[in-house]
Amino acid sequence: xxxDFQRVVNSxxxxxxxxxVAVKLIELLQDPNASAGRLARTIAHDPALSARVLKIANSSxxxxxxxxxxxxxxxVVMGEKTLRSLVLAASLKGMNKSFGLLEKMLWEDxxxxxxxxxxxxxxxxxxxxxxxxxxxxxxxxxxxVLNYSHPQxxxxxxxxxxxxxxxxLDLEGIYFPYSHALVGAAVLNKWNFSDGLxxxxxxxADLDIDAEEEPAILHLxxxxxxxxxxxxxxxxxxxxxxxxxxxxxxxxxxxxEFSSRYLEEIEKEIGRTFSENREYFLG
Length: 283
Fold this sequence. Notes:
Hypothetical protein af1432, 2 domains, 0% strand
């Protein structure tokens, strides 16, 4: 871990736990000899997580032609990358000490952006759909971490934003030494996620990524940026929708050269898909 990321993690203190089963699964997925049965047995050690994974697998979001009844069949039918997405999505709710209104909004924001990023990536060759899903899922991990480690300060920050005292980016420096983007990136780095996911979390808003040196990471972060903006318009994870937000002028849309008409179609698809599958992910 870089010195800067280590300093950020140390400043946060109490980190939300990555479920042990998720950690073990990610390790196993790096083993080319790991069988579907072995992966299934690992997930089965956490019955609640297993139930959520199967529930999400059978949602319309994954469009299975037949019901998936066992973890092993889910792995065979859906593939290992999708399995990782499922386990991480199913684990997200557990990264909270409590689950009140603020946590529910953070969860909806994360799942909505994950769904949106995956839908956008399905229309592109440059971005892997499951990598986009996970990048969207963890785009605001820093918010989850700060709410977990310093709930009073984070809730005061969010209340100030809701009261119109300034934007999140303007105000978070008053309450915390590091931005939520930097905190999220540092934690993903500590958890040994790929550099693409780390950089996407770090630059999901500013997209300050070299287009010549890291084109794949820039495209990934741009997809997440657009998905996040569309969720804002729809009011997913927000107190209310932002219908006047011009997503076509967002940094991600300009980089990806998305037209207003295309974005309107994607927005409808994201809204419909989130509405249909919300309860499957909430579990």
